[in-house]
Design a protein that fits this description.
mainly alpha; globular; single chain
């Protein structure tokens, strides 16, 4: 297990080094160069992962796995709380009520991290598969444009590659996802993962391990596609803004100019996740119901109809606040760690 404190410390040292390098470079150019040459926004790299020098899939797989592991462990309590809120149905338990219930239990800390193992397995493998597939799709399947050596896919290409990569990873890891949701819910009390697997198999057959895949795909495909579109566009806008600011004499801001800047990545990631999460939350609420109570909600359409009829539109937005907060942090951290790891790996071994 990689300590979160070590990971954040490494990122902080990297950012401090980049800041010093850019500041020194800015001072030298001020004295030696007659005037800075204007650069077009098209030549500014928008994603480090898309301009890899070696394009080694191993870099992307390992970087994605590390980013997924760190976020899953750090944010597991938020994921568990979201599941508990969405399982309540017409009771509409609030966050404070759910949290108090867990904290008043005999083992509050252990209960907050219930389901960490399947969550870590799903997120680690899922992130590794997602980033590797996304990189491969962009490199081999799409007619990407290249300007000054930097690959710059269009918004449509970002939308479809992100959606395809996420759907494929979700399908392969669906059994772990079902186990994770069951573990986090208070409706089940499995003593182990093997016991949970046997129970699902005996009750629902192999199909039980893929319960809710339709809702998951409908949620994840638009989310991933929209996230990549918002993320890349956000980075481009922030790069342009910071570049203009640095030309006015703010040397410190110049560290953000470029796709590898962790500052730019993290900021763009937060706002992208907020937008994409809000638009796709109804699918997440439906997915949770189907995975927890497949007898009552046999498919996504039936679940949506029952939720609207019995609980109203509000039920489709259950858990939005928690999901938004978790996604904002997890997506921003995952992409920042991923791009930083790829940059360091290719700088050393590429």
């Amino acid at each position: 297990m990689v300590p979160i404190s070590y990971l954040l410390s490494a990122l902080s040292r990297s950012l401090h080094t980049d800041l010093n390098l850019v500041t020194n470079s800015h001072v030298k150019e001020t004295h030696l160069a007659p005037a800075p040459k204007p650069t077009s926004s098209a030549s500014t790299p928008t994603a480090l992962s898309l301009q890899s020098k070696t394009a080694n899939p191993t870099f992307h797989f390992l970087a994605g796995a590390l980013s997924g592991l760190s976020t899953s462990i750090l944010l597991q309590p938020a994921d568990l709380l979201k599941t508990r809120i969405q399982q309540r149905g017409s009771q509409h338990a609030t966050l404070s009520q759910t949290l108090r219930s867990i904290l008043s239990s005999p083992h509050p800390l252990r209960n907050l991290y219930r389901g960490t193992l399947p969550s870590a397995l799903r997120t680690t493998l899922g992130s590794a598969l997602y980033f590797t597939t996304l990189s491969s799709l962009r490199r081999h399947l799409l007619p990407l444009q290249s300007q000054n050596g930097a690959v710059t896919p269009t918004a449509t290409q970002n939308l479809f590659t992100g959606a395809i990569a996420r759907t494929l990873a979700g399908l392969l890891l669906m059994p772990i996802t079902v186990l994770k949701v069951r573990y986090e819910s208070s409706l089940y009390s499995y003593p182990s993962l093997s016991a949970a697997s046997r129970s699902i198999l005996a009750t629902h057959g192999p199909r039980g391990f893929f319960a809710g895949f339709g809702a998951t795909a409908v949620r994840d495909a638009p989310y991933a596609g929209l996230y990549v579109v918002f993320y890349e566009e956000g980075k481009r806008k922030l790069n342009s803004f910071v570049g203009a600011t640095s030309q006015g004499g703010n040397a410190a801001a110049a560290v953000a100019g470029g796709g590898s800047s962790a500052y730019i990545n993290f900021t763009a990631g937060i706002f992208s996740a907020i937008l994409a999460t809000t638009l796709t939350n109804p699918f997440d609420a439906v997915k949770t119901r189907v995975q927890l109570l497949p007898q009552r909600y046999p498919n996504s359409l039936r679940a949506a109809v029952l939720m609207l009829r019995e609980e109203g539109p509000r039920s489709l937005m259950d858990g939005l606040g928690l999901r938004m907060a978790r996604k904002a942090i997890s997506s921003a951290l995952a992409w920042t760690v991923y791009e930083e790891c790829v940059r360091r790996a290719e700088g050393r071994w590429g």
